[in-house]
């Protein structure tokens, strides 16, 4: 039985432990907008989150941790990613037998009936995400999204749409919660996955390096849903290795950088539909990186029903805006 099948999801009260940061603030507001009963707590809530929570009717009545009046049958506690096991409120919820879910675990449960699209990579994944999110918006495609970093054109990190069939998720190789040292990528089980880079020299919060770091991405690719798609940067040797080992039912789709030319100081993306003026996004460290990400984003958007010509048109309008 699924965790949420013990009681209808929309009848559950969602409690956010440490609601005063951008991710959890946006999660709380997105859930309330979709009919959930939401509460939260934190020791300190600073601007702009104080005002946003107050306007949404979600500002805690008092600061601090409080675990009184828990109805374990109707409550799910979602701790922020930095909350440790010794948090007094978390301990209280555990003692009461309430259902506790990490942030990525909760996101998966919320998205389990949708097409999960996960964008991952050691570097510059925000460039790919920015392109995909804005092209989908410009093409009037309904979608949920869950990201960790701000993107131009979107004023929230999290948004839910009950009518959407797609959720776009930023996949992070770092731990999704201090209470369980598991990479966030482990939870999402994508139908469509895109990875643009794997840099084994990066460890950061993942507490992994070299082959262990590579294994995080391999495990992620191994969890792609049956008959899923794996879109990858073929110029990255680590990704090429992953692509060669995917299951037979998973389609590996390689990409390289798009063809471009410079005319009178203006960059143009070349295609069979003509040339489209574009501007390199600030999210990308180089022109080559940008045009690799453009091609990866195009192939992913194609999987979601966006025709190439429409993609190029939207990309041009977005980058030049």
**Structure summary, number of beta strands:** 16
Order of helices and strands: EHEHEHEHEHEEEEEHEHEHEEEEHH
The multimeric state of the shown protein is single chain
Question: How much strand content do the residues show?
Answer: 15-25%
**Shape call:** globular
Q: DSSP helix count?
A: 10
Compute the separation of the termini in Å: 48 Å
Low-confidence stretches: 1-7
Summarize the structure.
Helices cover 33% and strands 21% of the residues. The protein is globular and about 65 Å long. The chain has ten helices and 16 strands.
Task: Describe the 3D structure.
The structure is a single chain. With 321 residues, the chain is α/β, with parallel strands linked by helices. It has ten helices and 16 strands. It has a seven-stranded mixed sheet, sandwiched between helices. It starts with 12 loop residues before the first strand and ends with a helix. The N terminus is likely disordered.
Tags for this model:
single chain, 321 residues, alpha/beta, seven-stranded mixed beta sheet, 21% strand, globular
């Amino acid at each position: 039985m699924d965790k949420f099948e013990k009681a209808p999801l929309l009848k559950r009260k969602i409690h956010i432990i440490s609601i005063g940061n951008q991710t959890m603030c946006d999660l709380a507001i997105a859930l309330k907008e979709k009919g959930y009963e939401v509460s939260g707590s934190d020791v300190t809530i600073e601007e702009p989150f104080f005002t946003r929570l107050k306007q949404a009717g979600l500002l805690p009545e008092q600061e601090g941790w409080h675990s009184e009046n828990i109805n374990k049958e109707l409550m799910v506690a979602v701790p922020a990613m930095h909350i440790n096991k010794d948090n007094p409120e978390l301990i209280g919820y555990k003692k009461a037998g309430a259902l506790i879910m990490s942030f990525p675990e909760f996101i998966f449960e919320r998205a389990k009936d949708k097409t999960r699209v996960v964008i991952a990579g050691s570097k510059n994944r925000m460039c790919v995400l920015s392109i995909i999110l804005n092209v989908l918006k410009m093409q009037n495609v309904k979608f949920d999204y869950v990201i960790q970093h701000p993107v131009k054109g979107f004023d929230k990190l999290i948004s839910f749409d009950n009518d959407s069939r797609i959720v776009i998720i930023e996949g992070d190789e770092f731990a999704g919660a201090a209470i369980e040292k598991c990479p966030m990528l482990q939870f999402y089980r994508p139908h469509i996955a895109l990875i643009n880079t794997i840099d084994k020299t990066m460890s950061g919060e993942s507490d992994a390096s070299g082959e262990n770091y590579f294994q995080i991405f391999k495990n992620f690719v191994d969890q792609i849903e049956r008959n899923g798609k794996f879109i990858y940067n073929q110029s990255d040797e680590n990704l090429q290795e992953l692509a060669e080992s995917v299951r037979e039912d998973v389609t590996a789709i390689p990409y390289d950088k798009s063809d471009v030319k410079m005319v009178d100081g203006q960059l143009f993306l070349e295609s069979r539909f003509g040339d489209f003026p574009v501007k390199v996004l600030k999210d990308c460290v180089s022109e080559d990186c940008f045009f690799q990400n453009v091609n990866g984003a195009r192939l992913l958007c194609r999987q979601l029903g966006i025709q190439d010509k429409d993609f190029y048109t939207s990309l041009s309008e977005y980058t030049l805006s």
